[in-house]
Amino acid sequence: MSTTTMAAATGIPQARAWRGLPALAAAIVGVLALSTLVPEQGYTLNIFMQAATYSIAVAGLVVVLGYCGQISLAQAAFFGLGAYGVALGTVDFGLPFFVALLAGVVSATVFGVALGLASLRLGGHYLAMVTISFQQILTLVLTNWAGLTHGPDGVKNIARPSVPGLRLESGDHYLGLCLVTLMGITWYIWRLKTTRLGRAMQAVRDNEIAASTCGIDIFATKVLAFGISAVLGGLGGGLFAGAFAYISPDQFGFGESIVLLTMALLGGVQSPFGALLGTGLLVILPEWLRFLRQVYLAVYGAAVILIMVFLPDGLWGLTHRLRRPAPVAAGAVAPLPLLSQRGTETAEIAMAINGLAKHFGGLKALDGVDMAVRRGTVHALIGPNGSGKTTFINVVTGLYRPTAGRIAIAGQDVTGTAPHQRTRRGLARTFQNIRVFRGMTVLENVMVGAERPGNDIAEQPALVVERALAALDFVGLRGDAHRMVGTLSYGTQRYVEIARALAGSPQVLLLDEPAAGLNLSEKHELGLLLRRLKGHGLTILIVDHDMNLVEQVADHITVLNFGRRIADGGPRDVLSHPDVIAAYLGEPRQDAAA
Amino acid sequence: MSLVPQLLFTGFGIGAIYALVALGFVLLIRAASVVNFAQGEFSMLGAYAMVVLSGLLGVPYWVALPVAVLVMAGFGVLFAGATYWPLRHRGQLPVIISTIGASIFLANTVLALYGPSPEVLPGLFDTPGFEVGGVFMDSQYVAIMVTAAAMLLLQFLIFEKTLLGKKLQATSQDKEMASLLGIPVALMVLITFAYSAALGGLAGILVAPVLFVSVGMGTIISLKAFAANIIGGFGNIPGAILGGLALGIVETFGAAYVSVPYKDALAFGLLLLFLLIRPQGLFGEKIAEKA
Amino acid sequence: MPLLELGGLVARYGAAEVLKDLSLVVEEGEIVALLGSNGAGKSTTLRAISGLVPNVAGRLDFAGRSLIGMKPEAIVRLGVAHVPEGRRVFPGLTVRENILLGGSNRRGAGRRVLERETDEMLAFFPDLKRLEHALGWTLSGGQLQMVAVARGMMAKPRLLLLDEPSLGLAPLVVQQVFRIIAEIRQRGTTVLLVEQNAHMALSVADRGYVLETGSLLVSGKPAELWSNPDVRAAYLGGKTVAAAVG
């Protein structure tokens, strides 16, 4: 496994599909060799069986809690569903082992997805509550529905699979099966973190709104993460039933869910290796600390608090300090294909807004606003505070539903669609109060942008890295590619946001007060960047109060006041318009851009 | 005796308990953004404090009651110090996990000390109750309802009418800003924890004669408090109360007409129903995020 | 004795030294502007003064008394009010309640006194009077800034710290905010102002300090700062500004 670790240490999200496979093969040979050393039955075998099957379930928690940031407290319930699938399937229904295992995993998955669908539209604590409840109900059902489940006595004489030539009935061979499965899953989960799906999960964990404006379907991603964790719970449980030949409801109670959670947290919930480490320790430790038998759950409870306070990244997190920092990705990359292929300024409309209205009760925040953003131009939206600009942005990006009116991007109506669907149509944005994915590197942040559904290279991992590096090159942050984004200054994070949007090759880039909090020379640099973007033919809609910046870059200005459009046209005309001066500028503009 | 009014009465009584616990739960969400998974353990501990005081030490009931509630208030401060204070700058998720740990720790510590067999606590009054229009008014249920109503009124007055209440609200919305205005933030947070734990403890003592005192009561009560919150609208005070009452009634009728062992499953069903149909609950969230 | 005196001030966030050896003085009755690029340490200076940075060393005296090691609650009781970046108006409280709580630092003042002073403050900000019972989250950026300043003034401070009062505001509102800042000084309150908008800040300030990566680059009267070519090129935005000012 050490080579696998080394590969992880470089931290470069490489694209090669076979990455880590040699290590996986070595690990499989290793565990098979190990399993032959374990006696065919008895205490040592049981310890290994328990560690292997629990580890599979704990790996599920790495996905849902570590990657996606959602708390599941029913991992033991899914473990139980898998175990009962195998037990009842083989004992009562006479199914072959693997068919019963499949049935158990499927039932865990179905319940997992159903619970996820019900609770994951909302914040993380909803899932926690729903899973606790589910955990309690399942225990009730397993105990009380004796006709199906054999009640509190449990199910005895569960058979192991019989495959000609493999002698899986024998304990050490069955352990080999469990360990090989575990190695495969560990590899998969480790790989998952650096795939498009894994990055989407982490993006959702770090900032849901930003994730949705990168085109990620937050809800589907969370349900998927939770679904994967339920599958792994069920699989671990199914193998557990075969391992011990006897199961009963008390093995799958709420307490066991907490045990699994503690294993994940202790080892480190960000990595499948942490899951292995934590599970291994907590399976062996209670055996050593037998005198704690009466109070071991109390000790686990206290351990959870102590881990959260003193060891938030778990034991595996400690190894981060030992790893070498990733090298800055060197080498030439193709320049950012900034829509120059789409031609220079034309009369074609990139985004059309007609009669847009948004009413909050009696308040008309937007009242019939029209706007046409022409392709290849920089269009500025200005207006006093409270004039409806923020509402306008929220309606255009899909965070609010309009009361009336239509929005079309590149000729396609998007009025009723969700934020991530508009991103798929080519709308990208930055935020007034910066929203980056803090748990990820600069490069990974921008890769999430490059993976915008609908982007030409979104499906090609190698090109995604290249595109992200090109976007970082464009804003001058290539050298910081492997830094954690949270370590950058505020102004620099703004450029990460812009690079993230650019990497997605958007049709329209919406910049929400990009100059806020920048000083004059930084604003000047921003202006230069925007001019370069414009030179490449990108369509930009910018909302800002900085008139120097707006004059420097805008081809067209729309002014809002009290939710209505009071001026629309070229900068010179609009900024000398008496209504605009009265409502917004206060004094006529001197010719500052000259 | 007519069954439906009788069930309504009982349902309101149980619901009032859930409402009290849910109230303490909401306060912590609002004051410290803490979703406290050990809220039910406050009730469990309150009941056990009563068992120790009046059962073991022989303190008269009416003396033991306020002492137990005060002990719980003190415990709330300890609880805050262990689960919330060290993690307060690290976001919601670590604190949630830490309260889950606390809930397990508390339940199993009490289990190790007292064992799994339930304890019995006497009711507030010696008289079992009285009959009004064919409905038997159990005195304990009457006491529960009266106490719940009084606590609600008290809390409303504190939060909406006093300067302390405004300071508590300010602290819950932006701690750093509150400290810049000279509001003693740590004290405000500790007051909230103490009050929330006292409220939970009181609910546990009141419900003890009805449910028995057992280690498992904490988890069940926590779940009901969550469910009440989701039904009423997360973080919403009137919602929590209404949700608690609704839950009590559904459960009582469910136990009478459907099945006793699965009555807890009914609460869960109601919760899922709300999540699917009206996830923002009856009253929705008060403060919308401005993107 | 200056009202505020910083000498060799060092402030750290974790391992990062955000302020290194910063010295400055603010005399009673002045408006002093603190300028510099992003990350120069301007906001950190204000946060250090009001006790929000735990790791501070050096000299930090207010009215002859060291503020090092004091909590924010205690510092505001001495008469230092901080209106932070982003306004931080309590979203779930009304405008009136927000302003009222600004008086929390004054232990002697009872509810009745605070209510009366809130009425006076609302009279001073007529735009806020009609919004008295609106909740914080419903306000626009300009209204929020007014509430934040009014709330800061409720502390009856000797020194008012203003962090980026013009951030995200329309030009017309920026002009209004700076008129109010000038009026606050007229009423006898000393102001230490952090601004990105150097043009506006130096138009009301008596003196300015320009910071660079945590220490002082240059200080002086507005005219002196404008005439220093290095400062103008590097920290005030060079030619763009010259044109805007001219």
Features:
heterotrimer; A: 594 residues; alpha/beta; ABC transporter involved in vitamin B12 uptake, BtuC; Rossmann fold; 3 domains; 24 helices; disordered N terminus; C: 246 residues; six-stranded mixed β-sheet; 11 helices; 10 strands; globular
Descriptive report:
- The complex is a heterotrimer of chains A (594), B (291) and C (246).
- In chain A, helix 12 (254-267) packs across helix 13.
- Chain A folds into 3 domains: 21-314, ABC transporter involved in vitamin B12 uptake, BtuC (Orthogonal Bundle), CATH 1.10.3470; 339-426 and 508-517 and 538-594, Rossmann fold; 428-505, no CATH class.
- With 594 residues, chain A is an alpha/beta fold.
- The longest helix of chain A has 27 residues, at 218-244.
- Chain A has helices spanning 2-10, 21-37, 43-67, 75-91, 97-119, 124-144, 146-149, 171-192, 196-206, 208-213, 218-244, 254-267, 272-288, 296-310, 314-318, 389-397, 419-424, 442-450, 461-475, 490-503, 520-535, 547-553, 571-575, 578-585; strands at residues 349-360, 363-374, 378-382, 404-409, 412-413, 427-430, 508-512, 539-543, 556-561, 564-569.
- Chain A starts with a helix and ends in a 9-residue tail after the last helix.
- Helix content of chain A is 54%, strand content 11%.
- Chain B has one domain (3-277): ABC transporter involved in vitamin B12 uptake, BtuC, CATH 1.10.3470.
- Chain B is 74% helix and 3% strand.
- In chain B, strand 1 and strand 2 form a beta hairpin.
- In chain B, helix 1 (3-32) runs parallel beside helix 5 (139-161), helix 5 (139-161) packs antiparallel against helix 8 and helix 9 packs parallel to helix 11.
- The longest helix of chain B is centred in the first third of the chain and has 30 residues, at 3-32.
- Chain B is globular, with a radius of gyration of 19 Å.
- Residues 286-291 of chain B have low confidence and may be disordered.
- In chain C, helix 3 (95-101) crosses helix 4 (111-124) and helix 3 (95-101) packs parallel to helix 6.
- Chain C is 39% helix and 26% strand.
- With 246 residues, chain C is of the alpha/beta class.
- The model of chain C is unreliable at 237-246 (pLDDT under 50).
- Chain C is built from 11 helices and 10 strands.
- At the A-B interface, helix 6, helix 12, helix 14 and helix 16 of A face helix 4, helix 9 and helix 11 of B.
